[in-house]
Amino acid sequence: MKSKILKNILLFLAGLAVCFICDNLGLIKSSYILVVEYIGIYSIFVLGVNVVNGYLGIFSLAHAGIMAIGAYSSALVSMYVFDSIFTFPISILVGGLMGMLAGMLLATSSFKVSGDYLAIITLGFSLIIKSIVQNWGFVGGSRGLRPIPKYTSLIVIFVCLIIAIILVNKFVKSKYGRSILAIRDNHVASELVSVDNKKCKTVAFGLSSFLIGISGALVCHLLAYTNPASYGYTTIVDGLVMVYLGGIGSITGSIIGATVWEILVQALRGIGTWRWVIGGAIMVLVMIFLPKGICGNRELTWNDMKRLWAAIKEKFGSLKAAKSKASGKEGK
Amino acid sequence: MGEKVVSFNNICMYFGGVKAIDDLSFSVEKGQIFGIIGPNGAGKTTVFNVLSGVYIPTSGEVKYRDQVLNNVPAHKITANGIARTFQNICLFNDQTVLDNLKIAYYGHSKYNVLDVILGTKRFREEEASIEKECLDILDYLGLKDFAAQKAGALPYGAQRRVELARAIACKPEVLLLDEPAAGMNPAEIEALNQLIQNIRDHYGLTVLLVEHQMRLVMSICDEILVVNFGKKLAQGKPHEIKNNSDVLEAYLGKAN
Question: In this prediction, does ipTM exceed 0.90?
């Protein structure tokens, strides 16, 4: 038990060191680092979306609006209240907490409404937030808010991601995590085995929106500016795609989803608008062959990785053997 | 006469023009196995739904000991001590049998969100004790081998028992069993008969039983309530009910 904690701490420190080297020594092209940073931020974002859309099984489209709330509130704090790299955690926290507040308010709408109607309510929420920031002169209207201090670095993202993973992991293993899975399965039965549905939904929405708010705070401090257009339909769709691609109800799935989708988006940048066509096609294929996503409702463990590695090795081994056999025959 | 655990005082439950329960009064004493029978559509399951908080009665008063349950939300009623099983099995199919039971401990665990985030001692201790108690219940019902299996993948009879185990995991004082013998063969019914009596004695429960299998009802119930069209038709000991002319008429029709 103790050695396991020690191992985790060592791994964490090693991760920090790697991030520090990448950030400061300039060994890797900065455009690549930017992609990694995006992957980290979107992993936090997808973890948040996954808590409500995956574990709780409510089809919510509020994540774009909540991300906007997190981004704008933390940006305002950094610009007008605490303008220093050392107080950056406060800005992030404010972004997360404001998002959480909005999310918990939204949770009340899920008490009575469900399914398509709730999707419409949450979509409306996202669009309302977007038009508010678009028409509010103080936050720059549709020109966007700038200059936001550029505080986000790989280290900050790494630490936030680790915290997000720990939070979701603890939540899932607690009574709340078990209960929201029960609510997803059968909300009448869960209420009748003493689960407080309303409270569990509120907690789930709160955690989800907290993480989404944090991702918003990180992304606007990374780009040094933010505008309403970044929180439109594209963000909503991106969030859903990453969740359903990676796998609902899975922490590793969320991170895999964010990674695969982000790399895909970057790799297909060269072909312009066509990337949405290819991305969409991949999405359709995934839905047909892996309807639960890459690892739906389960976690990818070290043992899975080992088994996968062994399978790959075996396949390559047999290929090699076949090849050498074939070439041996030719030699004769 | 023992103390009254559950009492219905002039309960009416109307759905629009349909009178599912019409002016029904009865009370159940502690430790009893109380059977509710009646023809199809007589309102038996509605009685359970009113008692467990799924429906709020149109008028009248449901009481659990001295507490009026009319406006108490369903999850609180369960946490207070009235647990139930369902006519159609309602397990959480995607989760393991053990997790199905753990979910039922929600109402009895006292740790809060902060305990979860900080991983406090209270959180760890409670989780450990929940796991232990759930395994004990599974052991008692002979389900320990299934603990790690997905509930939805179990055979029908085992699912019925898991549902019973989950209801017991709510730590109830009153257990409502909605047609526990549905779809069982005579040997299984005989086993169920024993099981219900055993858990009543072992966990000190009061059992309310809705059932169509007369053999089961007549052999284990201490008292039987007969409902027809939402009204009380008769109430009494099994042998009294067997010979009651009103009951025979409701089931078999009038003799000319």
Answer: no
